[in-house]
């Protein structure tokens, strides 16, 4: 991933010369492409439907010149207040003004805390943004993006990741770190107390024949920093496994799924026929996974317990919209987690992999935290082999990535089992494509990506190792005369592309 502030609050590319050099270095090392957030708060900052794509246009051209590909994230959330956030990019000013006049358009917890990270899904279909619904606003934004960059879609811009919530993930903001509200491994809190969510809950409760269930969320669900056994709702045989618990969790998770489906339906309509793939990110909430209730997942909107698979419905929804499931925490191992937190990222990844396979939806991955050590990357390679990843996005590109001492242990897959020439086919992610631009674009005619130069011939391979059968060999390349170590991946196998992202 590129740095979060690659295109800053003023709409300009930050440190353009340094970025161009970094892109060239990544390309010479064999990296497929990069990912960047396309911030709503940057592009539409001047007012409704006043889009400024200038900085992103410059970035797209830089990536094209470097011979790389680009994943672009439609980031409808704010940057700031979460793990790894290195800058502050709020939602557009005119949206913040609407929030001041109507605070209920943002997520709200039981204590009345408002969270301005993302607009509440409770008002998805209501004209709360100067006469437009949030879904209409997102759709208009994506349509403007498509019309501006249609000449690049399908060749340089190969994927559109659609933001669906805080941090771009399909979830509720149940564990906000801002102002010390939440701390790992707290269970988080339900975010269903704005007037629009409460109205929906009341309607669902009445339909279920229990109007008393519509008065609010569970009264015994505890607070952000608590553990499951400290609450009546999440403890071993708590309220979560009662008829009421099933009703509430079904409604809460169902609202999230409907939101994801609505936004992805809009994206599908906008980008159909452009050649760019769609994807959506699902959060890797691995703490308290070993408990019966999976409390942290429940407050985030994933109705996943020891008795119920909460990721199968998510995968099925993504499959209906033709979107790849992008999952985090691929670098984590169970043994590295604190015992008291009940973590199991490895079991969680296996469960999500099974859900994706059953739904026949593509699966991609990324690391949840910045890691530059050998153990983390070895886990990524092992996970890629077993999970059948179509792509892996590495978080993130910064100075550490080009520090030889930090990156030296990292081995990226170079050669698939049985070798590419025996496979007799090329992976889709490695095949350049071109398309004819549609009307309305400032770039017309047929565009083809420039031929990619081969890696520098004087590079030397170091520290290769035998990986699981599907991946086989990993290598690190060192550029001649430089102290930086660059990553390379060649060949097919299940892991089709390696993307550097933020």
From TrEMBL:
BP GO annotations: polysaccharide catabolic process
InterPro entries, per the entry: GH (IPR017853), Glyco_hydro_14 (IPR001554), Glyco_hydro_14_CS (IPR018238)
Positions annotated as active site in the UniProt record: 169, 366
Single GO molecular function: beta-amylase activity
Gene3D superfamilies attached to this UniProt entry: Glycosidases (3.20.20.80)
Comp. bias regions, Low complexity: 431-442
Broad class of enzyme this protein falls into: hydrolase
Region forming the signal peptide: none
Reaction(s) catalysed by this chain's protein: Hydrolysis of (1->4)-alpha-D-glucosidic linkages in polysaccharides so as to remove successive maltose units from the non-reducing ends of the chains
Annotated residues for binding of substrate: 37, 77, 85, 281, 286, 328, 367-368, 396
Domain of life the protein comes from: Eukaryota
Pfam family, one: Glyco_hydro_14
UniProt-listed Enzyme Commission number(s): 3.2.1.2
Keywords (A to Z) from UniProt: Carbohydrate metabolism, Glycosidase, Hydrolase, Polysaccharide degradation
Region (Disordered): 413-461
Compositional bias per record (Basic residues), positions renumbered to this chain: 414-425, 443-452
Family: Belongs to the glycosyl hydrolase 14 family.
Identification of the protein by name: Beta-amylase
Upper taxonomic lineage: Eukaryota, Viridiplantae, Streptophyta, Embryophyta, Tracheophyta
